[in-house]
Design goal:
Pfam family, one: Choline_kinase
Shape: globular
Number of domains: 2
Number of helices: 14
Number of strands: 11
GO biological process, one term: phosphatidylethanolamine biosynthetic process
Protein name: ethanolamine kinase
InterPro entries: Kinase-like_dom_sf
Family: Belongs to the choline/ethanolamine kinase family.
Length: 445
């Protein structure tokens, strides 16, 4: 048995040793430290206490092997705190007390973040090889937290000291920001548009993402997710989907009479038929251009910190990043203005209104394609362009809704994280029909 195996005895025999980081595990996304971090046991028992102590020791062991700032420390020098994670990960903050002789014996605190994947089963939704390649690549570009290294079921990365996530209601441009139109006024929308514009300018090259540049991965990925559900959906889950996702009048939308799951598949085929062309009109074609995208730019993945600037933001969590239509990344974020993660989205009240869409697109264009944008404005075509692109983003929001519905059904089966995934799917299915009916009413579908 390797000394790195995460078994009940792992950590007990060697966790208190002073250990230097092993260079082969640093920064290289293709090299995996052979350690796994076990799930946290929430039961109240002596065995749970012992198990969780071993889990914490293993977290420390991982950090001591891959984080250069922890060189020379021991487990006794470290404090480990479990943080609130997202819908797929468990996070640990590791703080080390490093003696600093240059400051009269005062200690320097060094920190890193250990990100543990939700479960091996949930890895069917995320290719961890690709995720780590992308994270390391973006780290080198300065667009993601510093990437230290990976272990069997997660990775270690930079911890943004003092950073906090936004909430959904922070995402939309405020009245004051729209009126003044500057980055410095109250609101985070300028920073979000700026960060997305920078991402969409990145050229990853081939072999980094799931698809090579120019090929949208959402089509293949969603087909794969639908195939996973098709291959594993037993009668009990199908009944739950029909009852919970289809409640409130959502089961028969679109003339569907065969159950919610059959309706989801039907809608996906219609979307593919309509949105896989190059588009009509300059704004529409621009929105369908395939660029490097974040694809999960939601409030929990947008961090703020007064030390970065009062309204500055940083993006994290690139699990679903890859090459996709730029309108899809924008549409996904516009959906995140609503409180879907909190299971209380109000699509009519919270989805960006026209003034917020206009503000976002104009600020995005200034960063994503400044020369193109200046030419469009000089020709007096910016108003029509923004309208076309905004409609394209709304259309692509349907892809966002539908993909996350399918994702949620899979998570219901495989995730070890406590979250009402089918209620989340119901909310996104509701959002899908809210938007589709508006598009039909406007003649944009």
């Amino acid at each position: 048995m390797s000394k790195f195996d995460s078994s009940p005895n792992n950590g007990g025999g060697h966790s208190h040793q002073r250990r230097r980081s092993t260079s082969m595990y640093l920064n290289n996304p293709s090299t995996i430290l052979p350690i796994s971090i076990e799930p946290w046991d929430t039961s109240v028992s002596k065995s749970a206490l012992n198990k969780n102590k071993n889990t914490l020791d293993t977290v420390a062991d991982v950090v001591l092997n891959v984080c250069p700032s922890m060189v020379g420390l021991t487990v006794e020098d470290m404090d480990i705190t479990q943080l609130g994670g997202g819908l797929t990960n468990v996070l640990y903050l590791v703080e080390g007390q490093e003696p600093n002789l240059a400051k009269d014996g005062e200690n320097t605190v060094v920190k890193s973040l250990v990100r543990v994947n939700g479960s091996q089963d949930s890895d069917i939704l995320v290719n961890r090889e690709i995720e780590n390649r992308v994270s390391a690549f973006l780290s080198a570009q300065g667009e993601a937290p510093r990437y230290f290294g990976r272990f069997r079921n997660g990775r270690v990365e930079e911890f943004y000291e003092g950073a906090l996530p936004l909430c959904p209601l922070d995402l939309g441009a405020s009245e004051e920001q729209i009126k003044v139109g500057t980055k410095e006024c109250k609101g985070y929308t300028w920073g979000i548009a700026e960060a997305m514009g920078r991402l969409h300018r990145i050229e990853t090259g081939d072999g980094i993402c799931k698809t090579d540049l120019g090929v949208g991965q959402v089509w293949e990925q969603t087909d794969e997710w639908i195939g996973i559900v098709e291959g594993t959906m037993e009668e009990g889950l199908r009944r739950e989907v029909d009852e919970k996702v289809g409640k409130g009048g959502l089961s028969g939308k679109g003339g569907n009479t065969e159950g919610v799951w059959e309706g989801i598949k039907k809608e996906w085929e219609e979307i593919k038929g309509k949105l896989q062309s190059e588009g009509v009109g300059v704004g529409s074609k621009f929105g369908r251009e395939v660029k490097f995208t974040h694809m999960d730019c939601q409030s929990l993945n947008i961090l703020v910190n007064k030390r970065w600037g009062e309204w500055a933001i940083k993006l994290i969590d690139f699990e679903y990043s890859g090459h996709n239509p730029r309108a899809l990344d924008m549409g996904n974020t516009w959906c995140e203005h609503c409180q879907a993660n909190d299971l209380k989205a109000s699509w009519e009240e919270e989805y960006p209104r026209w003034e917020q869409k206009d503000f976002f697109i104009r600020k995005y264009m200034e960063v994503a394609v400044p020369e193109v944008w200046e030419a469009i404005k000089s020709a007096g075509e910016d108003g029509e362009f923004v309208r076309e692109l905004a409609n394209e983003v709304d259309r692509h929001s349907l892809i966002s809704h539908l993909a996350w519905v399918v994702w949620s059904i899979i998570q219901k089966k495989v995730s070890v994280i406590e979250f009402d995934y089918l209620e989340y799917a119901r909310g996104r299915w509701e959002g899908y029909w809210w938007m589709k009916e508006k598009l039909i009413e406007k003649g944009e579908w």
